[in-house]
Design brief:
There is one protein chain. The chain is of the alpha/beta class. The protein has two domains: 232 residues, Rossmann fold, CATH 3.40.50; 62 residues, Histone, subunit A (Orthogonal Bundle), CATH 1.10.20. Helices cover 50% and strands 9% of the residues. It is built from 13 helices and six strands. It has a six-stranded parallel beta sheet, with helices on both faces. α1 packs across α13, α4 crosses α5 and α9 packs across α12. The protein is globular. It starts with 9 loop residues before the first strand and ends with a helix.
Length: 312
């Protein structure tokens, strides 16, 4: 029998927004010679700063961060794009003899790494603009009903307000003539690191999490969120882009377009982010093999337990 050591695991730290994942990731990286690979679908974008809660460079304590702040907000960066680049980043970190730590709350990104998506057709910009106009006129729920007719199996796994993915599923169906749910069976083999992936989810008190979300949202609005979005729109970032469609941004766009007042934008954003946190928890509970860690990522007890769990 071989005396070789078992393959070193690839660690992912996930959980709901505002749960302290970034703090936990930096703590683990400091103790275990790690580097962080961002796994948040909004933190990939340059210039999208305030509502993403990106850790400022001066607070990263010297820990390298990858796949963060590197995509133009005009680009609709996909989970498939991230999975391909994350696989490369994992290889590069391990080649340096360090531990890769995937940190973030976008479950679809991890799923794309574990189960790569099928080769989807390029975006048809005319079709996308048409769907955007329908969504703006009739709402995201209407598009979800369209998807339920075109691809009920795909619709079952999505939420009505997750309109970027709902729209993409409609696009694939209309462009190829086949439901995305059927085409997903044509997946390529996952990167070898996917077989070594171990997922640890931060699981804080729900009431305290919601309090933190409300307080953080108020701080974002007070800290210049409206001005940030106004500047992005002035620079030509489409209001229908994935970046500005994210929670924390879409209601500010509606305010700037005159579709709601500022107080409504603030309160609806709080509700959006709370709902998003709930969906994140539900998503990770459905994923196989997730280890749940009670508490917030900034708590010393959770940090020590996490280090014990992942230490080689």
């Amino acid at each position: 029998m071989s005396a070789d050591k078992p393959p070193r695991p690839v660690i992912a730290i996930v959980g709901p927004t505002a749960s302290g994942k970034s703090t936990l990731g930096i703590t683990v990286a400091l103790r275990l010679n790690g580097e962080i690979i961002n796994c948040d679908s909004v933190q990939v974008y340059k210039g999208i700063q305030i509502a993403t809660a990106k850790v400022p460079a001066e607070e990263r304590q010297g820990i390298p961060h990858h796949l963060i702040d590197f995509v133009s907000p005009e680009i609709n960066y996909t989970a498939g794009d991230w999975a391909r680049e994350a696989a490369t980043a994992i290889e590069e970190v391990e080649n340096r003899g360090r531990m890769p730590l995937l940190v973030g709350g976008t479950g679809l990104y991890l799923r794309a790494l574990r189960r790569p998506f099928f080769p989807s057709p390029p975006t048809d910009e005319k079709l996308r603009q048409r769907l955007n106009r329908i969504r703006e006129r009739r709402g995201a729920e209407h598009l979800y009903c369209v998807l339920e007719r075109l691809d009920p199996e795909m619709a079952e796994g999505l939420y009505p307000h997750d309109w970027p993915r709902v729209q993409r599923a409609i696009e694939v169906r209309l462009q190829t003539g086949l439901p995305m749910s059927e085409q997903m069976n044509l997946r390529p083999e996952p990167h070898e690191s996917a077989r070594r992936l171990q997922i640890f989810a931060v699981n804080p008190s729900r009431n305290e999490l919601y309090e933190r979300i409300n307080a953080r949202t108020e701080a974002h609005f007070a800290g210049g969120l409206v001005e940030e979005v106004r500047d992005l729109l002035a620079k030509g970032v489409p209001p229908t882009s994935n970046a500005l469609g994210a929670h924390g941004y879409r209601r500010v766009v509606e305010y700037l377009e005159g579709r709601r007042d500022l107080a409504s934008a603030l309160e609806q954003t709080k509700l959006d982010v709370r709902h998003y946190a709930k969906r994140q928890l539900t998503w990770f509970r459905r994923e196989p093999g997730v280890v749940w860690c009670e508490g917030f990522g900034g708590e010393k007890l959770l940090q020590e337990r996490m280090i014990q769990l992942v230490a080689p």
